[in-house]
Write a structure and sequence with these properties.
Helices cover 23% and strands 38% of the residues. The chain has helices at residues 11-19, 29-45, 61-68, 81-91, 134-137, 145-153, 387-395, 400-416, 422-439, and strands at 6-7, 47-48, 100-104, 107-108, 121-125, 156-162, 172-178, 185-195, 200-209, 215-225, 230-238, 244-253, 258-265, 270-279, 285-294, 299-308, 314-323, 328-337, 345-354, 360-369, 375-383. The strands form 3 sheets. A 10-stranded mixed beta sheet has the order 4-3-7-9-11-13-15-17-19-21, with helices on one face. A 9-stranded mixed beta sheet has the order 5-6-8-10-12-14-16-18-20, covered by helices on one side. α2 (29-45) packs antiparallel against α6 (145-153), α7 crosses α8 and α8 runs antiparallel to α9. The longest helix is centred in the last third of the chain and has 18 residues, at 422-439. The model has no long low-confidence stretch (mean pLDDT 92).
Length: 442
């Protein structure tokens, strides 16, 4: 029989009917109707199967069983407060004096949070004020089935609105914590970030979770940058060893605005980062950078799409992957240049380093160019450590693990070295070195 495009999941509809009364905003007619409509669309389509091109490297068959056995009775935060605090402290970045927003098991934790505020800054939490999210949730554009599932059953999230001309002096830290009480639970969240004309902000988002439990962390983010606005978004992913981690971010970049995203994927058994970026004005810029490191049964999927619909815009993508024994990765990068998007400059680079013959890296770069006056490049490689470089270090007295670790750090340095924030640049490098030191290299 031919493989199906989508996988059926009939049980989730019954579970949704039983759980929706306990979801935030159940007393609001607009939100209840939106949830029912989104769930109906998800049931009609189901989970993307192996024949769906964007998901060919990440088989979601395991989610059918997960959703069938999903546990909707969330553990009380008071029962895991000590564990949550310890995980929060492990993810918190010191030496950054700024507000911190913490979510524990998919729920806002006011006790650990110091929310952003001040003149020209509006911040809201979904579970406390879902009406603020209405415009973003009711968007008319078609979305993926997993986005519909998240829309139907989201329990919490955050909304950040920065007025025109306002510059946030300190970055905002958003920390997502999953404790050991999250077995077979989903943490579905929404995020909305709006920057007015000329506004500037930095956002540091960290994900950390306990090992030994199977949970699903799923965050959908919408970013809207007005003319001349600038947003720098950093992500550190250190979920538990059995976790399922998915983030999907859609950004709209207006004239002369700049959006930069840098991520480091270290944790989770299965992780997927999806970045969709669209230009709505000229002379705008998008920069996507990231590194992913995997071993054992880990699988990392980085999927990007940049829609160059306006002329004189620039996009840069730079991703590096390191895979040890059992690790698997996929990079799917698509750039679409519209017919009227002349003077487009788009660069894409993905390189992978295999530390074992039992690792796997999949790469699918795509350039769809309908304009004639453009500069678009892409490069993709998969290779091993340079034996001559390794021999040189060994001949100078280094042990093999130290020598390999040094070469891996040098391979990844290109991703982080251009970051101007010294604290964040060093933090990326420290977490990378920590991964190498704790697991060694084959």
């Amino acid at each position: 029989m031919p493989l199906k495009l989508y996988l059926d999941n009939p049980e989730i509809g019954t579970k949704f009917d039983a759980a929706r009364a306990g979801l935030p905003g159940a007393d609001k007619d607009w939100l209840s109707a939106l949830r029912r409509g989104a769930m109906g669309k998800f049931i009609d389509r189901g989970l993307p199967g192996p024949k769906v091109e964007e998901w060919k490297y990440t088989n979601l068959g395991f989610l059918v069983e997960f959703l069938a056995n999903e546990n909707f009775s969330a553990r009380q935060v008071t029962e895991c407060q000590a564990e949550a605090k310890a995980l929060f402290e492990a993810a918190y970045i010191d030496n950054i004096a700024g507000p911190t927003v913490v979510f524990v098991n998919g729920h806002f934790n006011g006790g650990l949070s110091t929310c952003p505020g001040g003149a020209g800054v509006k911040f809201a939490v979904f579970s406390e004020n879902p009406d603020v999210f209405r415009q973003g949730l009711t968007g008319s554009e078609p979305v993926s089935p997993l986005n519909e599932l998240n829309r139907a059953m989201a329990r919490d999230g955050y909304h950040l609105d920065v007025d025109a001309g306002v510059t946030l002096a300190q970055p905002i830290q958003i920390i997502h914590v999953a404790t050991s009480g999250t077995e077979q639970q989903s943490q579905r969240m929404r995020a909305q970030i709006r920057l007015g004309a000329g506004a500037k902000a930095r956002l540091i988002e960290s994900f950390i979770g306990a090992s030994g439990v199977r949970y699903w962390s799923h965050l959908i983010s919408d970013v809207d940058l007005a003319k001349g606005a600038e947003l720098a978004h950093f992500q550190f992913q250190r979920q538990g060893k059995q976790a399922i981690h998915m983030t999907e971010q859609h950004s709209i970049v207006a004239e002369k605005a700049k959006f930069s995203h840098m991520s480091l994927q270290l944790g989770a058994e299965i992780s997927r980062t999806e970045l969709v970026n669209s230009f709505t004005g000229e002379n705008a810029e998008v920069e996507l950078r990231g590194a992913y490191l995997g071993r054992g049964r880990q699988a990392h999927d980085i999927t990007t799409r940049i829609n160059h619909d306006q002329p004189n815009c620039q996009s840069n993508q730079l991703f590096r992957g390191v895979l040890d024994e059992g690790g698997k990765s996929a990079f799917q990068g698509k750039v679409v240049v519209a017919q009227d998007a002349q003077k487009t400059n788009a660069d894409q680079s993905n390189k992978n380093l295999l530390l074992s013959r039992k690792a796997e890296a999949n790469i699918k770069p795509e350039l769809l160019i309908y304009a004639d006056d453009v500069k678009c490049t892409h490069g993709a490689t998969v290779g091993e450590l340079d034996s001559d470089q390794l021999f040189y270090l060994l001949s100078r007295g280094m042990d093999e693990i130290t020598a390999k670790s040094l070469l891996v750090e040098a391979f990844l340095a290109e991703v982080f070295d251009e970051e101007t924030d010294e604290i964040l640049r060093q933090k990326f490098k420290e977490k990378t070195a920590g991964w190498l030191n704790t697991g060694g290299t084959s």
